[in-house]
Every structure is written in C-alpha cells, then in structure tokens.
Design brief:
47% of the residues lie in helices and 16% in strands. It is α/β, with parallel strands linked by helices. Helix 5 packs parallel to helix 7.
C-alpha cells in the first residue's frame, strides 16, 4: 500500500534514530523502497532534512506548548510532532490545518491512538500562536544560538570563541541552508562549455561557480550517476573546498603524488586532472571496497595515472620513503565543516571526537615520511575545530623541524595565504568548512 510524504519522513527519521544511519542513506532507502512520485519525494526530502536541521528549535516549541514533558513521550510521537511542527513553523506554503491533520493521523496510525489527542492539542496551540511564538531564551549567547540554530552547546561555544556572536550566527545559519551540488569538470574530456551543454541536455540546471574555474553548481539534478554526462566521465562531484585543497598542493605533470587517505577519491581525481594525467598518483586506503570505487571512478573519467593500493596510513611503506613530490594528508576528522550536507553530524557527542587530534598527528607524521626533500605535505580536514587543525600542525612542527609552512595562492576571495594555512567557512566562502595547510620539507 503506497504511503504519503509525511509517512515517508517518519520512516526515514525512525531509521536515523534507531540505527544511527546517515541521513542520505536513510532517506534514499525509504524513497527507493516506497517509489514515491517526484513531487512527493521532493516534499519528503524537504521535511526530513528540515527536521534534522532544526530539531532543537522544534523541540523548544513543542516543550513550550506541551502539558507533558518531552522526556515522557515515546520517540515515535516526538518524530511525528517534530515533522509536523517543522511544516507549521517553516513551510508557509503548506496549509496549517493540513499539517495538523496529517500529524494527528500519523499519531493514530503509528502510535497509541490515545496519544493523538495530545498531538492534536500541541499542534493546534502552536498553529494558533504562529505570530506570537515564544522567543528563544538563554542565559548566554551560546545557549540562545544553540537552540535557535539547533547546534550543540559546546560546538556553539567553540565557534563563539573564534567568530563572535554575529559570525557564529551567520555560520550556524549557513549550516542549516541547502548547499548546491558542486561538480568539477574533467578537462581531460571536456571544456567548461561542452560540460555545461551536456548537463543541460540531461535537464540539469547549471551555473558556473562564481570564482573557481572548471567548477559548476547544479540544481534540479537528481540521481547524478544516471546522467549521460556523468556516465561519459565529463565531471565528478566535489565541493569547492576539496578542489581548493588540491590547488593549494599545486600538482604538475610528471609528478609523483601520494594521496594517503584517498577515499572517496575526489582529491586523487583532481590531482590527476591538474597533472593532465601525466605522472603517477598513488591512492591509499584501508578499505578495499572504497578503493574499488576509486578505481571505477578513474576508469569512468579516463584517468590512467591513478593507481590504488590497500595501505594503512599509520603503517609507512619503507620503499616509498622520501619519494613523493606531494603527499596529501586529508585525515579523518570530526566533520563539523560539512554539517550543511550531513546535518546529523552536529549531534555527535564531543567525547566521540575528543581523541581525534592524537590520531591525526600520528597519520600526518607517518605520511610525512613519503615526502622527498623539497617536496610538499598538504594537510587538510573538513572540520572547523582548532584542536584538529592548527593544534595538530603546531604539534607536528614541534616534532618535525625539517618541515615549515609555505605560502600558496588560491583563486577568488582567498588569494595569497602567506601563513601557509587557512580556514574556509561556509558563511564566508560558500564552501564546506575546511582547513588547509601546505608544508614544505627542507632540502
């Protein structure tokens, strides 16, 4: 029996809650299984991601109008309330009465029928007070911003220490906005105009990136892997921040480059393309299936300079010591720079990521042994936490006197990075949050 968009949202939210599934995987599994029409699939996606992005704020409104403490509610009931409140508060095109009615029907069908009365009462109170919703309060700016933008308090405090209140609000707001799909053109097969024409023939809406050459932003492009332009290897998906990371490394034809933590492969692809596929890119990862996807991606793109090898970044291969012109160390990190694409990351516990700097330092130290004298070690993360970025680099430099930061040049608003390290911010640069550091090994 077919289900509607709200039921699909409820199923996806349950998957995330019960199994800790990534949001993309949870949503896609529901959309595929239920085979929703395009319009219903789009509505499902909008509500689902909206709830994940605004869960704390939705909970604030629920608790403000509920006679029952949220801690006493069943998780399924909370999911129903959240998806209903999101529609009522944030989606003005959906009639309020319809959102209330659908929420009550979901409660009748998917929870104890007696709970539907509570759901009805809460939703009607919120809908009748839309013009007078309670202001978000808190003793500190961090508490207010944490609720308003549904980010954990500790992360909000960390950003306040770096950006101040106005900058933090802008960052958290950017994290809750939809990011365009960014793709990098495979210039071995197509120039910008040819790629645009091919994508438009696939009915994708395409605009050129405002300041990054050979980079496009796509909308109205569902199931990219099914597009003819994708099958023909004219592009691959990669955020502008990751492209800038490779540009900072500045690979050139005939170089030998080691990508030490290569999966899912975007930096290896970008490197090979910048080298005009002349040279050698050795892509390491510990996961055979991930390496297979890199191999398949390189074949689709027609890149012959990429070789994949199962290798643990913590266990150096002595035969490669001092051999590479460039080593890319895109180390495992907490991921707080990609919240706009993976909104569930914000709900990680701080204790789950507190020990990452130690691992990052170990990996960086290990990979640094591959850099030849005069070569470059490019350290990067997709997080905004200083302890995983500048903190790791400071510790690395203290232990490796033969490496020093080296200035580099990037396009657009970034320009020359004299210090050798920079942070990219979603609210400033329109990219994922990334840290990039270029280190040169002495001769």
């Amino acid at each position: 029996m077919p289900i509607n968009a709200r039921e699909a949202v409820l199923k996806a939210l349950s998957k995330v809650r019960r199994s800790g599934a990534w949001t993309d995987a949870a949503l896609n599994s529901v959309l595929i299984k239920e085979n929703l029409e395009e319009r219903d699939a789009a509505l499902t996606s909008r509500i689902f991601y909206g709830v994940i992005q605004n869960q704390t704020l939705c909970d604030f409104y629920i608790s403000s109008f509920s006679s029952v403490k949220m801690s006493k509610m069943e998780p399924q009931v909370l999911d129903i309330l959240r998806l209903s409140v999101y529609q009522i508060v944030f989606m003005s095109k959906i009639p309020v009465n319809a959102a209330v009615h659908e929420g009550v029907e979901l409660a009748k069908k998917h929870s104890n029928p007696r709970v539907s009365g509570l759901v009805n009462a809460i939703l009607r109170k919120i809908s009748s007070n839309l013009d007078h919703l309670p202001a978000v309060t808190g003793e500190t700016a961090a508490q207010r911003l944490s609720i308003q933008y549904s980010h954990p308090l500790w992360l909000t405090e960390a950003m306040l220490n770096r950006l101040g209140e106005e900058g933090t609000a802008a960052l958290l707001d950017a994290n809750n906005r939809e990011a365009a799909i960014t793709v990098n053109i495979n210039t071995q097969k197509a120039d910008v105009q040819a790629a645009i024409s091919a994508l438009q023939a696939d009915q994708a809406t395409v605009v050129r990136h405002p300041w990054l050459a050979n980079c496009l932003e796509l909308t109205n492009a569902h199931q990219l892997e099914c597009l003819t332009a994708f099958e023909n290897g004219l592009f691959y998906v990669q955020d502008a921040a990751a492209i800038l990371t490779v540009l900072a490394a500045a690979p050139k034809p005939k170089m030998f480059v080691i990508d030490g933590c290569a999966a899912p492969g975007g930096k290896s692809f970008a490197t090979a393309i910048l080298m005009q596929d002349i040279g050698h890119v050795l892509s390491f990862d510990v996961n055979e299936k991930k390496l297979q996807r890199i191999t398949e991606g390189a074949k689709r793109l027609g890149l012959k300079s990429i070789e994949t090898r199962i290798a643990d970044a913590l266990e150096p291969i002595s035969d490669l010591f001092g051999s590479a012109d460039i080593v890319l160390a895109d180390v495992p990190c907490s991921g707080y720079g990609v919240i706009r694409k993976k909104p569930e990351i914000r709900y990680k516990s701080e204790r789950d990521v507190i020990n990452l700097p130690e691992l990052q330092l170990q990996i960086t130290s290990s990979l640094s042994r591959y850099v030849k004298p005069g070569g470059v070690l490019l350290y990067s993360t997709c997080t905004l936490l200083q302890r995983e970025n500048e903190g790791v680099i400071d510790a690395f430099l203290q232990a490796h006197a033969d490496f020093t930061p080296e200035a580099f040049l990037l396009p657009g608003p970034i320009g020359e990075v004299k210090s050798g390290m920079t942070t990219l911010w979603p609210h400033i640069h329109g990219t994922d949050g990334f840290f990039i550091c270029r280190l040169k090994r002495s001769l």
